[in-house]
TrEMBL record, chains A, B:
Protein name from the UniProt record: Alanine--glyoxylate aminotransferase
Family as reported in the entry's similarity comment: Belongs to the class-V pyridoxal-phosphate-dependent aminotransferase family.
MF terms in GO: alanine-glyoxylate transaminase activity; L-serine-pyruvate transaminase activity
Binding site for substrate: R357
Cited PANTHER family: ALANINE--GLYOXYLATE AMINOTRANSFERASE, AMINOTRANSFERASE CLASS V
Underlying gene: LOC113520522
Cofactors demanded by this protein: pyridoxal 5'-phosphate
Record EC number: 2.6.1.44
Gene Ontology CC terms: peroxisome
Domain Aminotransferase class V: start-end pairs: 50-347
EC class of the enzyme, as a word: transferase
Signal peptide span: none
Length: 389, 389
């Protein structure tokens, strides 16, 4: 009886063949075999013990990962950007001030997001291939007295890592909270939430954790919790950390339904955390450091220049490489994909036309992968020199 | 070198054995075997053709599912509640009026969300076991002249379905847009977005589509697009439909990165849509109608009462059943799980202590499943009568 009422006919969805490349962009990277398996574990119903166990496992794993004793630790049902929006919208309200330290495109995202909430935004911008001086930041915080300072730990658009040790103490001295993006640094670069005085932090699963995107680990310090309790504004419903804390039972005796969690993503994140726990954080960090040091040596042997001048500023997960004059970045990326089935990325934001972005992280952080990329780059340098120079 | 700096030791994550029950609550329901398989398909990188193809497949499938020729159709990276927040926050701004038709808990959620944006909220509330009269709604819309009217098509907290035919025309007559929740009705109850004049609609994947939660189909009419173009406010960044439309290439020639999509959820949704397309919408609707009619007959044979008095108001996916005096709803639900490994739910919101909520939808909408539930209920009625009455 309904056939004649259908104004949109059935579309045709065809299955296409393709060969997945080795994922060596700034993310997503490849996933652990255990995570691929975990994705098809049984659907869990809300408000049942099996789901609560998985949520508790995830919270325990994230406390280890962030190195925090704070209880307000959970995962947002959305991409890393939903984590960013959760951290900002729960801490800073309309007419309050946020100081955003800008060096890459993620900081500009934080700026754009903040403006939408009527937050007063102040920007401390530096050159894209640099990192921030804590002394300079202190001078600015002292004058502006913002409610919070936003900074990106690892920046995938530039390939730099920001030193955070001491920054929390500095912010707290002037009554500011410290908000940190660790999307492309967590489970790769050393990170100590409590020791560094970080008050709000979020990450993502498709980078160092080698899981699928779509679920965003997040944590707030006790200091942040006090601020949240006293705030006179409300964040969007989906991002309200108080409601989420009640769903995730962060403080005990609450299992209140807030929204329907995604079972495959919960299983996957749990599996990622098991990988890190089994290897241990110090060994995960050491593996990333060794792999990338080896890769940088290979890059130097190819007579290529790293975009980030100071070695201590170079991010362990994403390496930005400058090509010699005459090479085209898009052409280089395409050749790497077509000839070697390795996916690397061109520059983004401030690094467009200035560098390749090569990601080696998570399950891919091995000498073998680093060598495979370097070998393919060596071939590509020759091939494109012949044809275009 | 980092071992001694770890203040949080490694937690232990143990694998627990459990038997997944047949999922017959109001959702999530079980997933198609093809969807379980799709979840572990390869990770797709942003801005690559393979991802674009999957996104295009999903948009075509959703246009069929919603029965709309509108181009502004895509999936939000979040649960159904993120779809709700996207629809509301993109259409109604601070100091504008929304009229919310309240009969179950999802409408109260829409109310709570709206208030957070400084939207003026007006409520038209009816008794939970009833549905709305279009004549009554017209009287209210005529007086209030809201920017939008929010209504839930299928309500999983009460087990009722709202007639929507004619409602769009009525709203448009008074300059209002029609926003509809189809979380528990899409791909189960007939739905015609364009014909019914729906301006904003969202759904979820873990109900009639038999997929995993975490990705929310959404569509806006051309009328809604005009309103969005002229609005003088901005929704949260994560929910901004203009940015999302540019990422999903809704209007052509845009593939702008907005956030990282979740490959397993995209593959899963695509696979759900393929199931519906292969079966065809009229046959999917007929199967749900037949299964549930059979189940209702079995319920009557058990001398049990359906909570929703009018047959035409009864939702095809979720049946609310009143137990005879003396039975305890929680005890009944527990016995069904422990003895028969079938998960059904007690009442929620207005139906707490008033009804069981039994979901038969998607892959589970078969005579076999309906009979299995009814048989188990017959046994439970006897077992709990012996022990407690």
């Amino acid at each position: 009886m309904y056939e004649e009422k259908l104004i949109v006919p059935r579309p045709t969805i065809v299955d296409r063949q393709f060969t997945k490349p080795l994922l060596c962009g700034p993310g997503p990277c490849d996933i652990w075999p255990s995570v691929a398996e975990a994705l098809s574990k049984p659907v869990l119903s809300p408000l049942c013990d099996e789901l609560f166990d998985v949520m508790d496992d995830i919270r325990a794993g994230l406390q280890y990962l962030f190195q925090t004793k704070s209880k307000l630790v959970l995962a947002i049902s959305g991409s890393g950007h939903s984590g960013m929006e959760t951290v900002i919208s729960n801490i800073v309200g309309p007419n309050e001030t946020i100081l955003i330290c800008c060096r890459g495109i993620w900081d500009d995202r934080a700026l754009e997001m903040s403006k939408r909430y009527g937050i007063k935004t102040k920007v401390h911008r530096i050159l894209f291939n640099n990192t921030f001086s804590l002394t300079l930041i202190e001078g600015i915080v002292k004058i502006l007295r913002p409610k919070a300072l936003f900074i990106t730990h690892g920046d995938s658009s530039t390939g730099s890592v920001q030193k955070l040790e001491g920054l929390g103490k500095l912010c707290h001295k002037y009554g500011a909270l410290l908000l940190v993006d660790t999307v492309v640094s967590l489970a790769s670069e050393p990170f100590f939430m409590d020791e560094w005085g970080v008050d709000g932090v979020y990450s993502s699963t498709q980078k160092g954790l080698s899981g699928p995107a779509g679920i965003s680990p997040i944590a707030f310090s006790e200091r942040a919790q006090e601020v949240i309790k006293k705030r006179n504004f409300k964040p969007p419903f989906y991002f309200d950390i108080e409601l989420l804390a009640a769903q995730w039972n962060c403080f005990g005796n609450t299992r209140q339904y807030h929204h329907t969690l995604s079972p495959p993503l919960l299983w996957a994140l749990r599996s990622c955390l098991k990988e890190v726990i089994n290897e241990t954080l110090p060994k995960v960090w050491a593996r990333h450091a060794e792999t990338t040091a080896h890769f940088h040596k290979r890059i130097e042997q190819l007579s290529l220049e790293l975009l980030i001048p100071k070695p201590e500023d170079r991010l362990v997960t994403v390496t930005t490489v400058v090509l010699p004059k005459g090479y085209d970045y898009m052409e280089f990326v395409k050749y790497m994909r077509n000839k070697h089935n390795i996916l690397i990325f061109p520059g983004l934001g401030p690094t467009v036309g200035k560098a390749l972005r090569i990601g080696i992280m998570g399950v891919n952080s091995t000498i073998q992968v680093a060598d495979a990329i370097a070998d393919a780059m060596a071939d590509t340098l020759i091939a494109l020199k012949k044809s275009s120079l």
